[in-house]
Amino acid sequence: MSESPVSLEALLKLKRLEQPDREFWEDFEQDFQHRRLRALMEDSTPSVGFGLAFWRRLLVWSPFAVGGLAAVAFFMAPSLAIQDGSEALVAEESQNLSPTQVFQSHAEPLSAMVSSEIARSMEAIRVQDLFSFHEAAGRSQFVQDALATKEEARHFRRVLSNAALSVPTSAGSRYVADPLTAGRADASSAVLRPGSHF
Amino acid sequence: MAVSGSLEREAQANIAAESVRDADIDAVYVERVQSGDVAAFDFLVNKYRERLFSIVYNLTSNREDAADLTQESFIKAFRSIKRFQGKSSFFTWLYRIAVNTSLSHLKRNRFRRFFSLENINDEASSSEIVEALSVKTKTEKGAIISELQERLNDALQKLSPKHRTVVVLFEIEGLSHQEIADIMGCSVGTVRSRLHYAKQQLQAYLQDYLK
Question: Is A14 in Cβ contact with B148 (below 8 Å)?
Fold first, then answer.
């Protein structure tokens, strides 16, 4: 019986013949030069290097950070409100601003708003309700009138806080203008006479 | 007998002398790089890139990963070359970076592995083994080579990373036990025992070809 010339060592030495071609090394060289240049730039500018490292870490942790912020925003958002004192909706200079801009320009620190909002929950208007109402109304005459003056805006706010009225309007609803009763600050009864679809 | 013994000793002495000269040349270039001569690093990259790629490729059996990891190893070496004090030879230090980078990669991707094999040199078809196997199995050489390549990579991947490393460094790269021990940070005895165990495993996996 003849001895096999095939040994494990000889088989493993075949692995030395697995070699890339010249094209591979050309690409390798190019890629490596780019990588080295990047490494040089990062290393030569500590702030850049630090910045890059910082952003790299941020990217890794950002999903968690975003998730955390979203959770905070979700729980805090219902409490975000415009307080009577802040006059966010009623300031004269904010007449021409969108609700978002108004809110942003007069927003108080979150914690302060939250704590005061709890105390004033019955009278405060929900920003989302206002926004959604605003969108639904599409800057209708109703909304414009409501925002026109300080006095009327307060009425507007209180009227909307009435549960019976805080319903989204359907398309095509009509606003029937009805002058607000003069001198009545406490508009517990509806000051708007609904139109056919309001 | 005496003549062959002395020839062997002379060959070993020549190899040792060449290694020393090699190490001296590397030391000169390392010093230049440490002084800020970035182009001197290119010399070292060109000198070692094929060997480093070979190690990484045989550890990962993936051509693309091997290219990426080889570059990463050089970049790591470039970044930390100022801390290299010359206690070991440059190539030992560089190989250590490459091996550690590969082992980290293997650990991170242990559940996601696929092969991407390198082209095999034309020399393979004229090798004794391929001739012998082709005759034995009455199979075409090209088919034998393909099959062998796949089976070899498969067998190596079945070994643990540490056992695979000693086999790759010793049998494929031709390093000595001491050099492997320096690279892997273990004793020569550990290298020998890992090598022995790994070869036993490979014998079992490749017994069809070794009968």
Answer: yes
